[in-house]
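Quick start: read one record
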Amino acid sequence: MPRAKPDQVITHRVEMGGWERERFKEIELVAAAGVLLPAAGIAAIGLASVGAAYALYQWLKDGPFTPLVNSLMDEEGVSQLWGKNNPLLQIIPNLGWLRGGDYSAWF
C-alpha cells in the first residue's frame, strides 16, 4: 500500500553547553585509552617474546647440552642409560634402516 508524502519536514537540533562538551572530552579520553592500552599490551608481549627468543638463541648457540649428551653416550655411540644388553632393545627393532642406517644400530 503506497504511503503519502510528508507535508512538512521538522529538523530537531540539540545543542550542548560547555559542561556537556567537557564531559564528552572525558569520554573520548576513556574510549581512546580503551583502544590504545590493549594494543600497547599486545606490542609489549610481542617485544618480550622476541627478547626471550633471542636470549634462548644466544644460550643455545654455544651448545650447553653437548657435555650432557656426550656423558650419556659411550665411545661407540650407545646410550649408557639403555646399554647393549637391554632386553627391550633386543625385542624392539630399530627403524633407522628407514633413513638408510643399519638395521642393527641398537647394538
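Residues 65-107 form one domain.
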